[in-house]
Amino acid sequence: MEIDNKKAHELKKDFPIFKNNKGLIYLDNAATSQRPQVVIDSIKDFSEKNNANIQRGLYTLSEKAMKKYNEARKIITKFINANEKEIIFTKNTTEALNLLSYTISEIISKEKDEILLTEMEHHSNLVPWQQLAKRNNMKLKFIKIKDDFTLDLEDAKNKITDKTALVSIVHASNVLGTINPIKEIISLAKEKKALTIIDAAQSASHIKIDVKDLDCDFLAFSGHKLLGPIGIGVLYGKQELLEKLPPFLFGGGMIKKVTYEDSEFADLPEKFEAGTQNISETIALAEAIKYVQEIGLENISKWESELFEYALKKLEELGDIEIYSPKKNNISILSFNPKGIHGHDVASLLNEDNIAIRAGHNCAMPLLEKLNIPSVSRVSLAFYNTFEDIDSLAQSLSKIKTKFN
Ligand SMILES: Cc1ncc(COP(=O)(O)O)c(C=O)c1O
């Protein structure tokens, strides 16, 4: 389904938030995306018709819930071309990366002691690795960003060495919008037998992800940035690696046999899914994925790129605006600062015109420090945004600039 401005207006009607917040211009899709009616209905439907705990029930209602949950796992698995033992449900990307950071040392060989990240990581793909480095006496290294806000591949080549234990990189930056050449970096890491982890929190809703084709070892994303509900995330891991990792959380649901003294753990994926899972959220995430697939990720990213170019042009026309996003190969995130105006002022004044954007450090303090800015204003687009949304943004920004000058 090709998207143009007319179609984007139609698609917006699938999202009740806009009916219930008249005039809302939502340009903070990187923080969380809005939910289509099918996703909202799915949660309500589960509560009204299918609510029961899964696995433990030997009665019809529980079996119904289990069937729905298993179907959802299949859909989510296929979405990234994995197999069903390779998908671990977590709360979000952050939890998925923490799970890894607490367990991965089991599969790191002793002579390797470097963790390689990029200078553009979200705190969620930085802080857990800092903690692992402290616990295991490892060194953190960072692939540099070039002046055009893209990754320096030459620097990556130099920094991926025999000492590199793991390379954990963001697929698309939540601040810059840069889409990183993850396939090249994964292949460089493989040459040095380093583990590869992809933070796909921003990319999963815009770019088709095929874990087999990427050949990454692990990958994480969040349902709530993919039109799904809050509280469900995914960790993908290659089966042979997940089998070698120890469990992260212990308790019910992740065991085969328990005595007073010891326990035998369940097979994948249950080994990593202790306790009652977010059952209705998982089922709703599968509905979100079906909705996305009906439109088509290629159509989504084509329209978002068109919108991004339009937004970039509008901001450039306004003048005196510093832009911190690459013009090409961008996930449709535009970060900027009107000269002399703090991001928080920009965001709160835009809010007066019912325009929602994010401003601040955007969970990437070291990156902002590197860019030498205290704060940044970020517009992040989705396929239900329209040219009129961008026009309103430009008009409002123009007013703000006049006010400050
Ligand atoms: C690139 C990136 N990684 C990780 C995260 C963390 O996602 P969550 O808060 O859903 O765990 C975000 C959230 O904004 C993100 O943009």
How would you characterize the overall build of this protein?
With about 400 residues, this protein is an alpha/beta fold. The chain has two domains: about 5-25 and about 295-405, Alpha-Beta Complex (Aspartate Aminotransferase, domain 1), CATH 3.90.1150.10; about 40-295, Aspartate Aminotransferase, domain 2 (3-Layer(aba) Sandwich). It is built from 15 helices and 15 strands. Helix 3 (about 35-50) packs antiparallel against helix 11 and helix 12 runs parallel beside helix 15. The site of pyridoxal-5'-phosphate (PLP) has 14 residues, from helix 5. Pyridoxal-5'-phosphate (PLP) binds next to helix 5.
Please render the helix and strand layout as text.
Layout: H1 5-12, H2 16-20, E1 25-26, H3 37-50, H4 60-79, E2 87-90, H5 93-103, E3 114-118, H6 127-136, E4 139-143, H7 153-159, E5 164-170, H8 182-191, E6 195-199, H9 211-214, E7 218-222, E8 233-237, H10 239-244, E9 255-258, E10 263-265, H11 279-295, H12 297-318, E11 321-323, E12 333-338, H13 343-352, E13 355-356, E14 358-360, H14 365-371, E15 376-380, H15 387-404
Helix pairs in contact: 3-11, 4-11, 5-6, 12-15
The chain binds pyridoxal-5'-phosphate.
